[in-house]
Design goal:
It is a single chain. By secondary structure, this protein is mostly helical. Helix content is 82%, strand content 0%. It is built from four helices and no strands. It is rod-shaped and about 125 Å long. The chain starts with a helix and ends with a helix.
Amino acid sequence: MELEKSMAFKEPTFQERAALAAQTKQAALDKLRAKPPADEAVVAQQREARLAREAAAARIAAEKRAARELEKTLKKEEAAARIAATAPAPKLSDAEQKAIRDAKYAARKNRVGRR
Protein backbone atom coordinates (compact mmCIF):
# COMPACT_ATOMS: atom_id res chain seq x y z
CA MET A 1 0.00 0.00 0.00
CA GLU A 2 2.70 2.45 0.98
CA LEU A 3 4.54 1.71 -2.25
CA GLU A 4 1.51 2.62 -4.33
CA LYS A 5 1.16 6.05 -2.63
CA SER A 6 4.81 6.98 -3.21
CA MET A 7 4.52 6.05 -6.90
CA ALA A 8 1.70 8.58 -7.35
CA PHE A 9 4.15 11.31 -8.46
CA LYS A 10 4.53 11.29 -12.23
CA GLU A 11 7.55 12.91 -13.90
CA PRO A 12 6.60 15.24 -16.77
CA THR A 13 7.45 14.00 -20.24
CA PHE A 14 9.67 15.84 -22.68
CA GLN A 15 6.64 17.15 -24.59
CA GLU A 16 5.10 18.51 -21.38
CA ARG A 17 8.35 20.27 -20.40
CA ALA A 18 8.75 21.72 -23.91
CA ALA A 19 5.14 22.98 -23.88
CA LEU A 20 5.66 24.55 -20.46
CA ALA A 21 8.85 26.28 -21.68
CA ALA A 22 7.02 27.59 -24.77
CA GLN A 23 4.17 28.93 -22.60
CA THR A 24 6.63 30.65 -20.26
CA LYS A 25 8.49 32.20 -23.20
CA GLN A 26 5.22 33.42 -24.74
CA ALA A 27 4.13 34.91 -21.40
CA ALA A 28 7.44 36.79 -21.11
CA LEU A 29 7.09 38.12 -24.68
CA ASP A 30 3.50 39.22 -24.03
CA LYS A 31 4.59 41.03 -20.87
CA LEU A 32 7.37 42.80 -22.79
CA ARG A 33 5.03 43.82 -25.61
CA ALA A 34 2.45 45.13 -23.12
CA LYS A 35 5.01 47.56 -21.69
CA PRO A 36 4.29 51.16 -22.79
CA PRO A 37 6.94 52.86 -24.94
CA ALA A 38 9.45 55.09 -23.16
CA ASP A 39 8.54 58.76 -22.87
CA GLU A 40 11.14 60.90 -24.68
CA ALA A 41 11.05 63.61 -22.00
CA VAL A 42 11.73 61.08 -19.24
CA VAL A 43 14.53 59.48 -21.26
CA ALA A 44 16.12 62.88 -21.91
CA GLN A 45 15.88 63.77 -18.22
CA GLN A 46 17.47 60.46 -17.21
CA ARG A 47 20.25 61.00 -19.77
CA GLU A 48 20.96 64.50 -18.38
CA ALA A 49 21.04 63.15 -14.83
CA ARG A 50 23.44 60.38 -15.88
CA LEU A 51 25.72 62.88 -17.66
CA ALA A 52 25.71 65.14 -14.59
CA ARG A 53 26.66 62.18 -12.36
CA GLU A 54 29.45 61.19 -14.74
CA ALA A 55 30.77 64.78 -14.85
CA ALA A 56 30.74 64.99 -11.06
CA ALA A 57 32.54 61.66 -10.79
CA ALA A 58 35.14 62.81 -13.32
CA ARG A 59 35.66 66.07 -11.41
CA ILE A 60 36.10 64.21 -8.12
CA ALA A 61 38.55 61.79 -9.75
CA ALA A 62 40.55 64.71 -11.17
CA GLU A 63 40.67 66.38 -7.74
CA LYS A 64 41.86 63.16 -6.14
CA ARG A 65 44.49 62.73 -8.86
CA ALA A 66 45.70 66.31 -8.32
CA ALA A 67 45.84 65.76 -4.56
CA ARG A 68 47.90 62.59 -5.04
CA GLU A 69 50.29 64.42 -7.38
CA LEU A 70 50.65 67.29 -4.88
CA GLU A 71 51.31 64.84 -2.06
CA LYS A 72 53.88 63.03 -4.17
CA THR A 73 55.60 66.33 -5.01
CA LEU A 74 55.66 67.37 -1.34
CA LYS A 75 57.17 64.03 -0.35
CA LYS A 76 59.87 64.44 -2.99
CA GLU A 77 60.63 67.97 -1.75
CA GLU A 78 60.80 66.78 1.87
CA ALA A 79 63.13 63.96 0.89
CA ALA A 80 65.34 66.41 -1.04
CA ALA A 81 65.42 68.79 1.95
CA ARG A 82 66.28 65.91 4.27
CA ILE A 83 69.11 64.83 1.98
CA ALA A 84 70.36 68.40 1.69
CA ALA A 85 70.35 68.79 5.47
CA THR A 86 72.36 65.62 6.00
CA ALA A 87 74.78 66.28 3.14
CA PRO A 88 78.37 66.94 4.21
CA ALA A 89 79.74 70.46 3.98
CA PRO A 90 81.39 71.27 0.68
CA LYS A 91 85.14 70.62 0.47
CA LEU A 92 87.28 73.66 1.08
CA SER A 93 90.38 74.39 -0.91
CA ASP A 94 93.80 73.98 0.72
CA ALA A 95 94.23 77.75 1.03
CA GLU A 96 90.85 78.12 2.78
CA GLN A 97 91.64 75.25 5.15
CA LYS A 98 95.03 76.86 5.94
CA ALA A 99 93.37 80.23 6.63
CA ILE A 100 90.85 78.63 9.01
CA ARG A 101 93.59 76.66 10.77
CA ASP A 102 95.74 79.81 11.14
CA ALA A 103 92.76 81.73 12.56
CA LYS A 104 92.09 79.00 15.12
CA TYR A 105 95.81 78.92 16.05
CA ALA A 106 95.92 82.71 16.47
CA ALA A 107 92.75 82.66 18.63
CA ARG A 108 94.19 79.92 20.82
CA LYS A 109 97.52 81.80 21.11
CA ASN A 110 95.64 84.93 22.22
CA ARG A 111 93.64 82.97 24.83
CA VAL A 112 96.74 81.27 26.22
CA GLY A 113 98.70 84.53 26.21
CA ARG A 114 96.07 86.31 28.35
CA ARG A 115 96.43 83.98 31.31
